[in-house]
């Protein structure tokens, strides 16, 4: 398979193309796509490599791929659009629209708490099957019945999967649609969140050799050694919040049943082009009123994350640059968005009017030396 990228890049963004092609050539990527919009115009739209290692199927212009937690920004936008349409605020109690949620001291929890990972419900306390996870109402009911791990609003910890069913219930109760249905109708008809009859053929997720997956001090980002050690200990402990938050349901994102379930925290299947276009529309005022977006990306939470064990920061559902979302220096003060497991990233910058997405199918980890998106983002800012 050639390491040459297909698609186009404006001459001013030639460095982005060079960085992307280097990733394909040196094996950092198996298959991937990158897209950049500036001032609403596509200046980079590149793809290449292999979509399915088993068959050798090539990555084509319309190859979609699971994007994991990049999904959360789309789900957050759906909720914010519902709130905008209905004139509702993020700080009203959840119990005002979801009375059943008020159990076990959760009566004061707000939508803002759900969207900033402060709800105290980062794990599902009983095993859930993939089939059951497709029932948004049942998943919401399960979480409504749970006792929070910490008092809502007092701390924050990454709700890796439960974020989607919690915030998604706001969308469902106010619009009558699941997040997936609402997204395709209002945010972008190429943003696929569930629905076996509509899902495109997706790239198959692969993992690098074990030696390339090991976390090490040599490859760690610039965060304290004790933080890295704490995270590694959590990763090795099956009872840690870190593991419990991300491993129930037990599932593979190569399983069509999982993708069809449309998990609203992790199930988005799309192309880099369509994810970047979503962010371009968002900062262009097409999806949310500019004032509402600025309010949503204002920092509401920053500090040590109870689940991830390192610093994380959030606006209303959007992740902000932090130890858990490391971006090049020129972007650190102005971007918002969300990374996904394995290296995918979607983000936007209101000040520079830039939207970016990188979607790979070879899962790598930042603490094991993954700098693919970081290098591409740096090349984008070099071109501005």
The helix fraction, in percent, is 25-40%
**Unreliable stretches:** none
Briefly note the structural class of the backbone: alpha+beta
Order of helices and strands: EHEEEEHHHHHHHHHEHHEEEEEH
Please count the beta strands (DSSP E, at least 2 residues each): 11
Give the CA-based shape: globular
3D architecture notes:
Helices cover 33% and strands 14% of the residues. The protein has 384 residues and is of the alpha+beta class. Strand 7 (301-304) and strand 8 (311-314) form a beta hairpin. It starts with 5 loop residues before the first strand and ends with a helix. InterPro entries: Beta-lactam-related (IPR001466), Beta-lactam/transpept-like (IPR012338), Beta-lactamase/esterase (IPR052907). Pfam families: Beta-lactamase.
Concise account of the structure shown:
The chain has 384 residues and is of the alpha+beta class. The chain has helices spanning 14-25, 71-86, 111-115, 130-133, 136-145, 162-175, 179-186, 225-236, 241-246, 256-261, 272-283, 290-297, 372-383, and strands spanning 6-9, 31-38, 41-52, 57-58, 65-66, 269-270, 301-304, 311-314, 335-339, 345-349, 354-360.
